[in-house]
Design goal:
Layout (H helix, E strand, L loop, with lengths): L3 H17 L2 H8 L2 E3 L2 H6 L1 H11 L2 E6 L2 E8 L2 H13 L3 H15 L5 E2 L6 E2 L2
Parallel strand pairs: 1-2
Antiparallel strand pairs: 2-3, 4-5
Helix pairs in contact: 1-6
Keywords: Membrane, Transmembrane, Transmembrane helix
InterPro entries: Antitoxin_Phd/YefM, phD/YefM_antitoxin, YefM-like_sf
Organism: Pedobacter psychrodurus
């Protein structure tokens, strides 16, 4: 089982990445993006949806031969992660708190917490 502090560390790293990078660049860098025609999507919709749900890939469906006119299909898990991140970053106070937490982590200013009661424990 993962320690709560380890999970929190990775969550902070994940959020830090969103704070310092544009979501558009993250999608292009880390996700496999597949582009299919509307006809192909229509014909193979179930298999595309199954693949997206299983792999968390991104599916692009261009329209009207225009790069800026397209539909993006993502899994509900990815959508929820993006909206949660947007919510966490929606206020200056949240962004500052997360940035301060990341800076504390970088300099080794961390605390351990008990999973049972959530209280700080000595290292």
């Amino acid at each position: 089982m993962l320690r709560k502090s380890f999970v929190d560390l990775w969550m902070l790293v994940f959020i830090w990445f969103f704070v310092h990078n544009d979501v558009h660049l993250i999608v292009r860098k880390f996700y496999i993006m597949k582009a299919v025609t509307i006809s192909s999507l229509r014909t193979n919709m179930k298999s595309y949806f199954d693949e997206i749900s299983a792999t968390e890939d991104v599916l692009i469906v261009p329209r009207n031969n225009n790069e800026d006119d397209a539909v993006v299909v993502i899994s509900i898990k990815e959508y929820n992660a993006l909206t949660e991140t947007a919510h966490l970053m929606s206020t200056e106070a949240n962004r500052k708190r997360l940035e301060n937490s990341i800076e504390s982590l970088k300099v080794g200013n961390t605390r351990r917490f008990s999973l049972e009661d959530g209280k700080s424990v000595e290292a």
